[in-house]
Amino acid sequence: MATVHTLGGPAVLAAAASAAGEVALVGVTVLTSHDAGDFERVVGRGVPDMGVETERLARLAVSAGLRGIVASGLELTLLRAALGPAPWIVVPGIRALGDARGDHARTVTAAEAMRRGATHVVVGRPITQAADPAGVYQRLMESL
């Protein structure tokens, strides 16, 4: 996966998608570590609705030819309805019920992400920092 910043707008995204060839590019919408206040500070403007902003960025990425997007599981239902079934939606910040959120402000379980329309989930620290990584992985797979 590669990330392209949208400062250059749709033309930059389209050029990246065209140059990627067989590599599937996905665009990051709003990081799962950002809540509304964090995101507003990053983009330098008010963002009254995180879902609307995520959808705007997702539509930009997909219309430019990217294979899909990276987004919080909290926006999945909205995004799947807006984008249809084809684009990938990669969901980081996956946590089991009761797990520490770490630096992720917006998390969902793997089962919830898949039920809402994710094509891929990213599970990092819950596995890599576990005393029993294989056990955590097994429980995650069983939850799906």
Q: Name the helicity range.
A: 40-55%
CATH class: Alpha Beta
> Biggest sheet: strands, sense, closure?
4 strands, parallel
Number of domains: 1
Q: How many helices? A: 7
Shape: globular
CATH architecture descriptor text: Alpha-Beta Barrel
Q: Which segments are poorly predicted (pLDDT under 50) over 5 or more consecutive residues?
A: 1-7
* C-alpha Rg (nearest Å): 16 Å
Biggest sheet strand order reads 1-2-3-4
Query: Total strand count, please?
Result: 4
Oligomer: single chain
Commentary on this structure:
By secondary structure, the protein is α/β, with parallel strands linked by helices. It has a single domain, classed as TIM Barrel (Alpha-Beta Barrel). Helices cover 44% and strands 8% of the residues. It has 7 helices and 4 strands. The protein has helices spanning 10-20, 36-43, 50-63, 76-83, 110-116, 125-128, 133-143; strands at residues 26-28, 68-70, 88-91, 120-121. It has a 4-stranded parallel β-sheet. Helix 3 (50-63) packs parallel to helix 4. The protein is globular. Mean pLDDT is 83; it is low at 1-7.
